[in-house]
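[job 4471] stage=fold_predict status=RUNNING
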Amino acid sequence: MAVYQKNKPYNPAIQIQAMRARYPQFKAKKKANGDIVFSGKLQVKTELPVYTIEIYYRGDSRPQIFILDPLPVDGAPHIFPGSGSLCLYHSDNYHWNERKLIAYDIMGWTAGWIYFYEYWLQNNHVWIGPEVPHGL
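[job 4471] inference complete, writing structure tokens
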């Protein structure tokens, strides 16, 4: 596997290469503006469902992560209202930029969100994952 230099701006081709190396089941589609949509299936544990996910890489803008199947239930925690994108981190604790890789940061947090969401579904809507109070 290739070694990626920290603090070097990544172009879309490097994002795609990193995803292919770590998550070959995800396909990439480049947009004319340089954005990339990664689509694929992710199963966190064999006893949990296989999830279909889309991730929008938008350079320095926060990536957007969508669960397409199975759709999260209404009222599921840690989903941005309006867009339906997963909330994986609070901007006070982590700042996304184009030097970071979807394959390293976002995919791991997406898997964690799925795990905690499945626990939440099965355990009276108790979220055991990390979270930060919002609106303060």
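[job 4471] summary: The longest helix spans residues 102-122.
[job 4471] exit 0
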